[in-house]
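wait is this the right file?? whatever heres the structure
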């Protein structure tokens, strides 16, 4: 600080670095403390020579698959019928390389984490990547039904293009469809990275283990939750805020209930309106049922049944009312 008179509101800029050195000198002790806590159970780190999958690379794989499933929509170059096969060949080769590498890393990570014997991770990574790619025609076909379901179920939808380009529900379902295939192939880590990425963008949380049939449509979508052991039939429509979840879980649920059915079954042609909550592995919503908004269901509903809340009594309060 100088002896110069400082007017109220005047900014003093001191270029003398010696005055702030003591703050920097405090940092090494904090670094030492943080490094020391990495040896305790309270620290979760991955400080290891073993490589792990790259979240950014997995997100790039999602984009690659979307370009292949919906050619021309998300590519930066123009695709003409004459060069479609060449373009697809280039995209598929790049996808195979990226996916094989990330699957290999995920398998290797699991092997080293659980101290397992060698499982030929590189060979398995390439084999599983090829199996996934061979399923892409089927994935495209079922996503085609999802696009049609959106146009048929939403009067506000202007075209297929509008749905593919902009609907968050279709994006979340697209990512789920590819993640589900990897989940069925027992690829570690990657399926959850995929669906949680879609969750972070859309607010729609679909576990890759859920079984979902054709012509699936999520309208609006924000707040939708579909649990791991959920089973959904064909021609099902969900609205925002719907939860297909588990009943109250014990403290050790992470281990005691693993691999058990905890989430509902929704049969064909069911409509579930906004903010409905349906819980429990034994809960079955029968085919053709309509579940109204804001209901709470923990028991099965017969087929072709409508479930709604009683009409509430509205109370109007205002100075203009007598």
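ok assuming it is, sequence goes like this
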């Amino acid at each position: 600080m100088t002896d110069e008179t400082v007017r109220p509101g005047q900014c003093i800029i001191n270029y003398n670095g010696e005055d702030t050195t003591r703050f920097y000198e405090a940092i090494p002790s904090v670094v030492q403390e943080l490094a020391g806590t990495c040896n305790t159970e309270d620290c979760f780190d991955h400080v290891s020579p073993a490589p792990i999958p790259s979240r950014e690379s997995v997100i790039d794989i999602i984009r690659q698959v979307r370009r292949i499933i919906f050619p021309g929509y998300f590519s930066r170059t123009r695709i003409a019928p004459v060069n479609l096969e060449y373009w697809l060949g280039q995209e598929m080769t790049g996808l195979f390389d990226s996916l094989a590498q990330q699957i290999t890393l995920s398998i290797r990570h699991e092997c080293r984490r659980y101290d397992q014997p060698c499982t030929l991770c590189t060979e398995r990574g390439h084999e599983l990547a090829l199996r996934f790619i061979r399923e892409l025609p089927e994935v495209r076909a079922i996503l085609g039904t999802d696009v049609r379901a959106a146009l048929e179920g939403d009067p506000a939808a202007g075209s297929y293009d509008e749905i593919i380009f902009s609907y968050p529900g279709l994006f979340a379902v697209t990512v789920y469809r590819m993640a589900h295939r990897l989940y069925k192939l027992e690829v570690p880590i990657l399926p959850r990275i995929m669906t949680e990425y879609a969750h972070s963008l859309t607010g729609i949380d679909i576990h890759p283990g859920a079984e979902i049939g054709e012509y699936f449509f999520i309208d609006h979508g924000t707040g939708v939750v579909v649990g791991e052991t959920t089973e959904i039939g064909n021609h099902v429509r969900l609205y925002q805020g719907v939860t297909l979840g588990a009943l109250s879980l014990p403290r050790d649920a992470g281990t005691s209930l693993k691999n058990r059915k905890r989430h509902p079954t929704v049969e064909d042609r069911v409509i579930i309106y906004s903010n409905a909550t349906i819980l429990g592995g034994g809960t079955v919503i029968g085919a053709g049922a309509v579940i109204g908004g804001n209901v709470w269901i923990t028991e099965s509903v017969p087929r072709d049944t409508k479930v709604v809340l009683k009409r509430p009594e509205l109370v109007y309060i205002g100075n203009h009312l007598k």
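The longest helix spans residues 84-113. so i think its the right one actually
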